Amino acid sequence: MYAIPFFIWHSSNWQEANKLAGQPILNRQYDNADFIYTWSDLVGLSYASYRDNESLLSKNFTKDTIFVGDPYGKKPLQILQGSLISNEAQKVVNQ
Predict the structure, then answer these.
(1) Residue 22 placed within a domain
(2) pTM listed for this prediction
(3) Is the dihedral of CA 39, 45, 46, 47 positive or negative?
(4) How many Å apart are CA 42 and CA 57, to the nearest integer?
(5) How many CA atoms lie within 13 A of 43 on its CB side?
(6) What is the band of 49 on the pLDDT scale with cuts at 50, 70, 90?
(7) Rounded to the nearest 5 degrees, what angle is found at the Cα of 45, between the Cα atoms of 90 and 83?
(8) Domain contains 47
(9) Best CA proximity match to 41, nearest among 29, 22, 59, 65
(10) Which residues contact 69 (CB under 8 A, 6 or more apart)?
(11) Long-range contact list for 30-37, CB < 8 A, 24+ apart?
C-alpha cells in the first residue's frame, strides 16, 4: 500500500468552491477507500449509506488508521503517523 497525495483543483466559478475555503484539511490522514464520501460531499450528493465522518471536507471527519507496506510481504505493515506534507509545502499552499 502507498501513501497517495490527494489534490483538488477547481475553477474560480465552481459552485462548490466555498467548501474548500478555510478548511483545516491539509494534514488529515486520508484513506482513499473513503474517496466516495469526499466526492459526494463536493458535488452535493446524499444517500442512505453516506457517512459524513468519512468525508475529508467534513467538520465531523474522523481519522482512520492507515497501514503502509506490502500486504503480501514478510515484514509487518506499518502504521502511518504524522503529517505527509512538509512545512515548506504548507507555506506554498497557504499563500
Answers:
(1) yes
(2) 0.64
(3) negative
(4) 8
(5) 8
(6) very high
(7) 20
(8) yes
(9) 59
(10) 1, 75, 76, 77, 78
(11) 30/6, 30/56, 30/64, 31/64, 31/66, 32/4, 32/6, 34/64
As for how many domains the chain has, the answer is 1
Tell whether 5 is covered by a domain: no
Is the residue at 49 inside a domain?
A: yes
Domain that holds residue 82: 17-93
Instruction: List % helix, strand, coil for the chain (3-state, nearest 5).
Output: 25, 5, 70
Q: Are 41 and 69 in contact (CB under 8 A)?
A: no
> How far from chain centre, in Å, is Cα 76?
24
DSSP letter (8 states) at residue 64? P
Q: Are strands 67-68 and 78-79 parallel, antiparallel or unpaired?
A: antiparallel
pLDDT digits (tens, 9 = 90+) for 26-40: 777 777 888 899 899
